[in-house]
Amino acid sequence: MSEPFLSEIRIMSFIFAPKGWALCNGQLLPINQNQALFSLLGTTFGGDGRVNFALPDYRGRVPIHVGGSHTLGERGGEQAHTLSIAELPFHSHVEQATTANADTPVPTGNLLATVANTYTPPGNVTAMDPGTLAPVGNNQAHLNMQPFLTLSFCIALQGIFPSPN
Predict the structure, then answer these.
(1) Which of 2, 52, 87, 132 could form a disulfide with 28 if both were Cys (CB 3.0 to 4.6 A apart)?
(2) CATH class held by domain 1-62+149-164
(3) What is the pTM of this model?
(4) Do the Cβ atoms of 54 and 112 come closer than 8 Å?
(5) What are the domain boundaries of the chain?
């Protein structure tokens, strides 16, 4: 393996960071012991910038390339999300009904129909399914994650200081 650039991030298939590397777990490092690395990262990923700075934290995250509307070190997204009414696409529900006279008290497999009289004794009432006219859903968050494979992201604590092209 060739010598890495200082602050280079690589994906490892093992759970620990090799010598000269650190896991990208957002840990704070002292500036006075890591001045070259601090000169590259600054406080982009956290830290106070006086005594310490933070390494990138990839726990539960996927990387995206900087550019467009995304800046280096920007964090975003969420692992679980509760949809609001505004996020649902416009849709309608078609009610299946007929203008024919009702001829059975059993709703299963049948349609709403015209009744001969407006009122009927309570004993003849058949309840509709609760979801027919009621709101549905539990207002709970749902997972919204792409398929993934968990690996370790490590950052080089030592290496060649990179220079711009």
Answers:
(1) 52
(2) alpha beta
(3) 0.71
(4) no
(5) 1-62+149-164
